[in-house]
Write a structure and sequence with these properties.
The protein is α/β, with parallel strands linked by helices. The chain is 38% helix and 19% strand. The protein has two domains: 199 residues, Rossmann fold, CATH 3.40.50.720; 100 residues, UDP-galactose 4-epimerase, domain 1 (Alpha-Beta Complex), CATH 3.90.25. The strands form three sheets. A seven-stranded parallel beta sheet has the order 3-2-1-4-5-6-10, with helices on both faces. Strand 1, helix 1 and strand 2 form a beta-alpha-beta unit. Helix 2 runs parallel beside helix 4 and helix 6 packs across helix 10. The protein is globular. The two termini are 35 Å apart.
Length: 327
């Protein structure tokens, strides 16, 4: 078995499944661990698969004993902001306690490299835009708070055990693999682009715009979108950097360019060639007007170069996955 075998935890989910495919296509040995509570077994493109949870120490012992794993990538967090407010203990149990058990397993079996799927939710309401990695951390929900807790835990594990990590703070992941084999598949779906495309496909009656009176050019929120395979590329660069001796670090992942909700709907309409009915609604609590990443750090230090920075290119790949005629 190759020395660069990667364990992808949560590899049957949206981002995790794209990571598995990216690594396999690059020639890496890949092992997936997923409890399938949110993920889908048929989204895993290949490699060895274990069904179970990251807090199962007996299963972790088996995985690490049976395989010569060099690095771990963690995509197995609960990630719905609203649900985290309603059920905070679920989020602390899975996102913090579950990750603690995963790290215990790694340290026990002397696996020293960890890539963490973090989030822009750690920043909360922005005090400056674009948001840099040095922006104050002030999450407005338990989801963001659990990610900060894990980032602190990783820092402490580096100090105590020499576990090296990269924490990658995502903004808005979107799109699908160009092969059309895998894409965004949540239940329930909460992300803007797939909801728009489901409306275009006739699976929904309309798309809601929550707030039209923000201090932005068209009154709707502005967000930063990044293609899921560009995320995967960043993770691959991060783990290779750790393998090559780079110290632990934290990076933003975004396009550094923002699009309003109306712009996203308009672009999707042009790509699909379909009318997308819109319903205007009031603001949602806690939605900042503008969230845009400053991602120069990872571009400079790791050489990350996103291939699909224009939103039209991102939505086009997503439409190939969502369109009704897809076979």
């Amino acid at each position: 078995m190759k020395q660069n075998t990667i364990l992808v935890v949560g590899g049957a989910g949206y981002i995790g499944s794209h990571m598995v495919k990216f690594l396999l296509d690059a020639g890496s040995e890949v092992i997936t661990l997923d409890n399938l509570s949110k993920g889908h077994r048929d989204m895993v493109s290949g490699g060895k698969f274990y069904q179970g949870s990251m807090d199962d120490q007996a299963l972790l012992d088996r995985i690490f004993s049976e395989n010569q794993i060099k690095g771990v990538m963690h995509f197995a967090a609960c990630s719905l902001v609203g649900e985290s407010v309603e059920k905070p203990l679920k989020y602390y149990k899975n996102n913090v306690s579950g990750t603690l058990e995963l790290l215990n397993g790694m340290i026990k079996h002397n696996v020293k490299y960890f890539i963490f799927s973090s989030t822009a939710a750690v920043y909360g309401e922005p005090v400056e835009v674009p948001i840099t990695e040095g922006h104050p951390l002030n999450p407005t929900n338990p989801y963001g708070a659990t990610k900060i807790a894990v980032e602190q835990m990783l820092h402490d594990c580096d100090t105590a055990y020499g576990l090296k990590y990269m924490s990658l703070r995502y903004f808005n992941a979107a799109g699908a693999d160009e092969s059309g084999e895998i894409g965004e598949r949540h239940d329930p779906e909460t992300h803007l682009i797939p909801l728009i495309l489901k409306t275009a496909a006739g699976e929904r009656k309309s798309i809601s715009i929550f707030g039209t009176d923000y201090p932005t050019p068209d009154g709707t929120c502005i967000r930063d979108y990044i293609h899921v395979n560009d995320l995967a590329q960043a993770h691959s660069l991060a783990v290779e950097a750790l393998f090559n001796g780079k110290p632990s670090s934290t990076y933003n992942l975004g396009s550094s360019k923002g699009y309003s909700v109306r712009e996203v709907i308009d672009i999707a309409g042009r790509i699909t060639g379909r009318t997308i009915p819109v319903v205007e609604a009031g603001r949602r609590s806690g939605d900042p007007a503008v969230l845009i990443a400053e991602s120069n750090k990872i571009r400079k230090e790791l050489g990350w170069q996103p291939r699909r920075e224009e939103l039209a290119a991102i939505i086009s790949t997503a439409w190939e996955w969502h369109r009704p005629s897809r076979s």
